[in-house]
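In response to the reviewer comment on reproducibility (Comment 2.3), we provide here a single inverse folding case reported in full, input and output, so that an independent group could reproduce the run without further information from us. The structure tokens appear first.
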């Protein structure tokens, strides 16, 4: 997490003030743990300096402390029960061996390494239940064999940390059953200030790369992360981590976030709408999504801007540059900036390999100099926003690998970086009251978290 060291060197606080700051920070942390928050049945702190909140839908009543303790205990009890059920196959009178799936393995290979024969394979494949997971074995996964008196009695195929396919012998043959353990959501808060890149700042704040990408996707309609990021930009994010038996398994959802870019702050609130599922909205209920993304290539560098009087780098003549060039390595995925249909996919003179999409409302986008097209991209194909349509290359009149991107409105070319993008649908009238209640709540939590972290940081620095 980025601290506020430059700001504190100008002040010296009396010891009494420091004690008060610590007490206030502690009180804020305690208060936050009792506040409701969305999509989490029960939450608790995962970082000492980053207090967590319990989140419930605005339509639900806030949990009391006793309720929250009871809810957490219930979740843990359910998880323990599932673990016990999963372990039921591992009876003490079985002899267990473990085989790891290797590249090119079939079930026959795996059974043979465990000292079992073709009949054992046939008996297991004849089990009652869904055995489709056996068709998807991957190197590195484990298969555990339980034997009694040298006869196969049970098999456990470990698909992931939360999923196992368990096969056990009954009187009339084998029975197969999938076991899926529930993950417990824990809510956390992180903040950071960008000094060189978003990824480095997010990493320092404790965010994973996938969470950082999600953060960029949420704000990618308003902020071009290839062009707009400046030193001093900052972010705040309330998010979930999904845990199993006290350990994090994977990231959950971002519940609320703020991104400050060049002095302008954007705020996003996650809300599960009644008509189209979960999405991100501004505090007023406008969709964070636009009908178009600002950039077709993630985190690429703009190498040449829109310029109708530019000198062409290959032809060396004044020739309008009708789009924006994104420099990226050959093979970098190119994504459709909006929903649409492929009007053209092929070779087009100096553009080289090009895809042209039509989007309705008189809008077309063009993607040039591709090294190749994505699978099934051909004239007439419908594509969705964010779908990969091709890969960066240097085909046609290009001095190096890059994407040339153009944006047209009713046949007139526009600057892709500055053109006003159509907005997606806002929160419906039906959902508006519940959303506004949640919006106020999450904005308050973002502010309170930030204040608590700042107070704690200042107090810690002054007492060092």
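Designed residues, in position order:
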């Amino acid at each position: 997490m980025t601290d506020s060291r430059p700001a504190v060197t100008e002040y010296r606080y009396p010891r009494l003030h420091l004690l008060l700051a610590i007490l206030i920070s502690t009180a804020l942390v305690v208060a936050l743990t009792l506040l409701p928050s969305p999509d989490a049945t029960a939450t608790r702190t995962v970082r000492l300096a980053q207090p967590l909140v319990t989140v419930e839908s605005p339509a639900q009543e806030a949990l009391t402390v006793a309720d929250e303790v009871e809810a957490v205990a219930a979740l843990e009890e359910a998880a323990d029960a599932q673990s016990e059920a999963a372990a039921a196959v591992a009876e003490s009178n079985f002899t267990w061996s473990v085989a790891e799936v290797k590249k090119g393995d079939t079930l026959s290979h795996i059974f043979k390494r465990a000292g079992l024969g073709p009949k054992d394979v046939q008996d297991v494949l004849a089990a009652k239940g869904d055995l489709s997971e056996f068709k998807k074995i991957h190197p590195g996964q484990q298969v555990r064999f339980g034997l009694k008196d040298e006869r196969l009695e049970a098999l456990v195929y470990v698909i992931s940390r939360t999923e196992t396919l368990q096969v056990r012998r009954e009187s009339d043959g084998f029975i197969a059953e999938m076991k899926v353990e529930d993950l417990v959501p824990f809510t956390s808060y992180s903040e950071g200030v960008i000094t060189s890149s978003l990824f480095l700042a997010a990493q320092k704040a404790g965010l994973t790369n996938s969470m950082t990408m999600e953060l960029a996707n949420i704000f990618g309609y308003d902020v071009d992360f290839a062009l707009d990021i400046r030193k001093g930009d900052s972010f705040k994010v309330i998010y979930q981590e999904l845990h199993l038996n006290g350990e994090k398994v994977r990231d959950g959802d971002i519940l609320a976030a703020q991104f400050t870019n060049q002095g302008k702050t954007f705020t996003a609130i996650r809300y599960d709408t009644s008509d189209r599922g979960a999405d991100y909205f501004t505090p007023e209920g406008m969709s964070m999504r636009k009908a178009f993304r600002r950039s077709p290539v993630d985190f690429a560098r703009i190498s040449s801007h829109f310029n109708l009087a530019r000198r062409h780098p290959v032809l060396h003549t004044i020739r309008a540059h009708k789009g924006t060039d994104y420099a990226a390595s050959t093979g970098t995925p190119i994504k459709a900036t909006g929903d649409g249909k492929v009007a053209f996919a092929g070779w087009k003179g100096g553009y080289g390999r090009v895809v042209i999409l039509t989007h309705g409302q008189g809008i077309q986008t063009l993607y040039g100099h591709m090294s190749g097209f994505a699978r099934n991209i051909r004239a007439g194909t419908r594509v969705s926003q964010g779908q990969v349509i091709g890969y960066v290359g240097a085909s046609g009149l290009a001095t190096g690998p890059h994407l040339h991107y153009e944006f047209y409105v009713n046949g007139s070319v526009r600057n892709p970086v500055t053109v006003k993008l159509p907005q997606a649908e806002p929160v419906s009238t039906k959902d508006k009251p519940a959303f506004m209640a949640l919006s106020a709540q999450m904005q308050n939590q973002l502010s309170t978290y930030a204040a608590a972290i700042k107070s704690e940081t200042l107090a810690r620095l002054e007492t060092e």
